[in-house]
Amino acid sequence: MLWSFRRLTPVLLGTLVLSACGGGARNCVDPDEPYLAARNNAALQVPAGLSNPDRSAALTIPAGETTSRSSMSGSGCLAAPPSYFRSSGTVARSPEEVVASWAQAWAARESDAVVALYSTGFVAPTDTSGATAWLEQRREQVATGPVPDSMVEGLSVEPDGPDRRVATFSQKFGVNTLKKQLVLVRESSSWRIVEEKVLEVK
Fold first, then answer.
1. Quick one: which H or E segment has residue 167?
2. Is 170 helix (H, G, I), strand (E, B) or coil?
3. Backbone phi, then psi, for 165, in 5-degree steps?
4. How do residues 100-131 score in pLDDT, each as one tens digit?
5. Residue 138 has pLDDT above 50, yes or no
6. What residues contact 125, with CB distance under 8 A and at least 6 apart?
7. What residues are paired with 168 via a beta bridge?
8. Nearest in space to 173 (alpha carbons), one of 140, 145, 199
């Protein structure tokens, strides 16, 4: 019995550690980290006979609430980093990230990154060209055509089923503004563009 308990002890300890940080799914901060209790110390006393140092550029820790164990009840996580929109073009955790990555990669003339955000089931906006031909035209357009702003305006994402979203926004090309619509579908753990159309040109 004692032998079995000793074998289970590491497993139990590991489970407790993971549960304290949300099962390892979130970025957690140890409440005992020294920086959480950082504070300003009194100025050092300069020994007699020596000149005072220049403290004009000294760092000052801003006043704030003291973090304690009791104030960390709940998830135990203080903060998580913001979502990085420009991942790799292969994994986009939300439709908003797809649109942001798509626009920024286009502005940077990263044609491979732009095309990687389209679904394998992409439907070309015109019947005269297939999806493969249309995507090759898009690749060339990104590489050699006019460069849009890296940020889109007025982004709105509406659900169209559990694994389908419709994104509407404006994309600027110099003095021209195109109102566009992207339809996105969930594929495995990411989102991909399955349809694209221009709604209006201003």
1. strand 164-173
2. strand
3. -135, 150
4. 999 999 999 999 999 999 999 999 987 667 89
5. yes
6. 134, 195, 196, 197, 198
7. 156, 181
8. 145
